[in-house]
Design a protein that fits this description.
The chain is an all-alpha fold. It is 79% helix and 0% strand. Pfam families: DUF6518.
């Protein structure tokens, strides 16, 4: 049963514009930082770190989940996530074309398909926050399992980015469900284990 609080028109407009601006900023940072050569300076070192963070799919998924979960309705969640990814891809590939006069069409189509999947997934994430039951559990378990799968290599690489993915998964597990009922968490954990098992057998394309 839904219990979200409605927003007025101005708040909704600000949240939609904010989603676009956030996407534009991350997309620009991802491509700009990727063009900075490593010359050993403090600035280039910082840009390499920014590049690793902003080009990693984990940060995109985490932000998308937060945008979806804190939306006034499922359709608005889908719109906000769509605007976020649209802004990110527009600035990333737009800057790349501006600098290199090259557009990787196949790569763009792949990530466009992933973005469409994320838009539909945002509906389940929203349900995971404001509803109760197996469908809501699915909306939480799926991104949590995804973060576990893309972050599991931390246990033998000890890379900070993989650790961050695991932290993202834990944060989503805690933050998304408004219901803290132990039965709901049992459903979430059960589905998380199932998704992790499937993902272990079928490698992710990301």
């Amino acid at each position: 049963m839904s219990n979200y609080k409605p927003k007025n028109g101005l708040q909704l407009f600000i949240s939609l514009i904010g989603s676009v601006i956030l996407g534009l900023a991350i997309g620009f940072l991802a491509k700009y930082s990727d063009t900075i050569s490593g010359d050993g300076s403090l600035f280039s070192g910082m840009m390499q770190t920014v590049s690793q963070l902003t080009t990693a799919v984990g940060i995109w998924i985490f932000i998308g989940c937060l945008l979806a979960a804190w939306s006034r309705s499922a359709p608005i969640a889908a719109v906000k996530v769509g605007l976020f990814f649209g802004g990110m891809f527009a600035s990333y590939y737009g800057y790349q074309y501006y600098v290199y006069h090259f557009f990787p069409f196949k790569q763009f189509i792949f990530w466009l398909i992933m973005a469409v999947i994320a838009i539909f997934g945002s509906i389940f994430v929203w349900k995971g926050r404001y509803h109760y039951g197996w469908v809501a559990a699915l909306g939480v378990a799926l991104p949590v399992a995804l973060f576990i799968l893309i972050g599991k290599s931390f246990f033998y690489t000890f890379h900070w980015l993989e650790c961050l993915n695991l932290i993202f998964g834990i944060l989503l597990l805690v933050l998304i469900p408004k219901s803290k009922d132990w039965r709901q968490y049992l459903q979430i954990l059960f589905l998380t284990v199932v998704f992790c098992a499937v993902g272990w057998l079928i490698p992710l394309p990301i």
